[in-house]
Amino acid sequence: MGRKTKTLAKTERQTKLKKVSSAEPSHQIIQFGKIWPYAPAPESTKIVNIQPRYELFINGKFVPPRSGQYFDVINPANEQKLCEVAEAGEADVDAAVRAARQAYEKIWRKMPGKERAKYIFRIARILQERSREFAVLETINNGKPIRETRDFDVPMSAAHFFYYAGWADKLNYLIPGREVAPLGVAGQVIPWNFPLLMAAWKIAPALAAGNTVVLKPAETTPLTALLLAEVIQQAELPPGVVNIVTGAGATGALLVSHPDVDKVAFTGSTAVGKKILRAIAGTGKKATMELGGKAANIVFEDAPLDQAVEGIVNGIYFNQGHVCCAGSRLLVQESVAEIVLRKLMRRMETLIVGDPLDKNTDIGAINSRMQLKKIQELTQVGLQEGAQIYQKRCELPSKGFWYPPTFFTNVAQSSRIVREEIFGPVLTIQTFRTPEEAIEKANNIAYGLSAGVWTEKGSKILKMASQLQAGVVWANTYNKFDPSSPFGGYKESGFGREGGRQGLLDYVKIL
Ligand code: NAP
Ligand code: MG
């Protein structure tokens, strides 16, 4: 590594991560060597109407929980309470599953595919019509920048409903020569990093295939799922076809182990995924698991380096690194390591960390105090392991949960920060000499969700893609999604696919 990196890293280490702030404003552009701040450009919040209290969505209606319990939901960017949300207990989960069963037997499974499609198209169109409202609400509840929710989360959610609506009347073509049937009631549990998009990924294929749904959003981010419940009412979906039960892990556990749930679809941590698999073992329930990741982003010496640096930044820093497929391990060919690092540090200085509602913001808030603690703990582990740290110099807001873009050099393949998912804006950097060494380092890990390859040689891309153990391999780009393209993992990153034709196969049985 270059001398400059070492000096910076040493200074940061001496200050033990505390002194990440400086006098410079976080909003800045570099012009003729001078740094000028951008003017604030906050998105108005007038379009959203957050109610003081939210109930459960069961059988087409918002109903108070039989448990009588509510929990607070906060804005992670300023720690202000937004509202309280019902906590579903055993009787509530049971009522939701019963509503889903009734809707399945009496209406949804019998409805011709072309009729089901009309409802799903309607949901997609209303989502588009109300896209600004969804984007602002998602940003307030999740802490991710409005640019991400406006340009990615919400349009991609609508796209998934559009895509699967198109499949609903074509199920006979799913497997040539074979007929398929729905599984029944799907119990779906999702995390906080893409609250609306994960709901769309789960609900759209389930409905297209003729299943009914009970969905549990994450405790910290239930608000866009509850707004989606309103959209579902607006689309006049028959009552009980989609039910939403809010709560924490205990509610999720009740849902997946309910005896009348036929299919469990889970996205979240590998630890909870394993717990769920143990809970449903021997019940005959079908399951799909989208779990953690620790993706290698591999940069060869012949890559377009400026684009690669942009891809590295997109892969780990945008979205605060709250992405299961985040490019959290940079593997860079030794001959270009120094120049890539210099370019990366320069780019990091121009990243804007701050108010998620500001349209200029690149990096918003960490979703919860718990997640921030986990990032801080693993960063300390990295320092104890002897890694060298570099963090962006920026002023972080005094309220809320924040973490500056960070990278570590001088890490070993055996370092915990290289092997464990940090789920924050923290990158580890290793070097390699040959493609074989890159593949060895990329694959020598418990996870296998995604990877990135940067090179101008098509043959190298194909060779790497065929040998990388990852569900998705991006070439000369990163974090690109399309509803027609399947997504899922190898090894401890889970099994089953979401998106595309493969995503539907996980919601049907073959007759
Ligand atoms: P998590 O703890 O696995 O939670 C995911 C979902 O499962 C949440 O809705 C959670 O409820 C629920 N849950 C917790 N315990 C459960 C149980 N015993 N039975 C059924 N459901 C249960 O993950 P997280 O807190 O969202 O994030 C932590 C880690 O998950 C991250 O650091 C990352 O490793 C991983 N993650 C992976 C992805 C991915 O797409 N692969 C996405 C996000 C997170 P509550 O959280 O509401 O209590
Ligand atoms: Mg949790």
Provide the gyration radius in Å: 23 Å
* CATH architecture term of the largest domain: 3-Layer(aba) Sandwich
Total count of domains: 2
* Average of per-residue pLDDT values: 93
Give the number of helices: 16
Fraction of residues in helices? 25-40%
**Strand arrangement, major sheet:** 16-17-18-15-14-20-21
Largest sheet: 7 strands, mixed
- Give the low-confidence spans: 1-28
Broad CATH class of the largest domain: Alpha Beta
Concise overview:
The protein is α/β, with parallel strands linked by helices and 511 residues long. The chain is built from 16 helices and 24 strands. Strands 16-17-18-15-14-20-21 form a seven-stranded mixed beta sheet, with helices on both faces. A six-stranded mixed beta sheet has the order 11-10-9-12-13-23, with helices on both faces.
Describe it for me?
This protein is an alpha/beta fold and 511 residues long. It has two domains: 3-34 and 293-475, Aldehyde Dehydrogenase, Chain A, domain 2 (3-Layer(aba) Sandwich); 56-291 and 493-510, Aldehyde Dehydrogenase, Chain A, domain 1. It is 39% helix and 18% strand. It has 16 helices and 24 strands. Residues 1-28 have low confidence and may be disordered. It binds NADP nicotinamide-adenine-dinucleotide phosphate and magnesium ion. Residues 189-193, 216, 218-219, 248-249, 252-253, 256, 267-269, 272, 275-276, 290-292, 324, 421, 423 line the site of NADP nicotinamide-adenine-dinucleotide phosphate. NADP nicotinamide-adenine-dinucleotide phosphate (NAP) binds at residues 189-193, 216, 218-219, 248-249, 252-253, 256, 267-269, 272, 275-276, 290-292, 324, 421, 423.
